[in-house]
Amino acid sequence: MADGTELPRLGGITEPMTVFTNAVLAIIAFVLAARLAYHSAAEGSASAGCIAAALLATSFASLLGAIAHGVDPAHEAALRARFWRGALYATGFIGAATMASVAFFAVTGNARTVILALAGLKLVAFMVRVARRPEFRVAAADYGAALAVLFAGAVYVAWRWRAVGAAWLIAAVLVSLVAGIVQARRVGFHRHFNHNDFYHVIQLVALYGFYRGGALLVDR
To answer: Where are the domains of the chain?
Structure first.
């Protein structure tokens, strides 16, 4: 959100490039989610369905983030805060769905039950924490933990079964890591294309990797 500096404006919209890149992210994520959900239903793939759910949650989070960044904090601070909190809540579902996918493409039996239970507990804990501290760093930590589980699961199935989709997931996680570093270090090119905008553009690449990986994975 704002860091004390004057926010760029275009008409009545604050941070117009951040709004635009968030909106593009939301649209692409929704399209990929719909395509992967169709594939999941046709193939009966629960892991693909979970990744589709994560992409759909990404779409909602990006849309709410776009609205939040576009609202003027000087005049509508409470409204901006509500949309921002909604975006953070949606991010929790991204992490939970991402983690749940591992339960279906990497393990079976009791291990699957444990991972699904942990994904649910993590979501509840995240919601409670965000209610107390609606900060991006909280969402980033939760999402990072989910990606770590996904990365471990993808490496495992790549090693054990030579799963084709695993390579796409590994690449997507690594691209997301780069995006996270850009965000954390506030790497930007201009006040009208800042670290948030750069983060969104990099995440577009990661989204395609998650989509391709989900489409190629096979449930165990």
So the answer is: 12-216
Report CA-CA distances (Å) from 39 to 3, 100, 218: 42, 18, 12
Residue 128 burial (CB count, 10 A): 10
pLDDT one-digit tens code per residue, 25-63: 999 999 999 999 999 999 999 999 999 999 999 999 999
Over 60: is that where the pLDDT of 3 sits? no
CA 87 to chain centre: 10
Helix residue spans in the chain (DSSP H) = 16-43, 46-70, 77-105, 109-132, 136-161, 164-184, 195-216
In a 10 Å sphere around its CB, with 0-12 CB exposed, 13-18 middle and 19+ buried, how is residue 131 labelled? exposed
35 token code pair: 């395509």
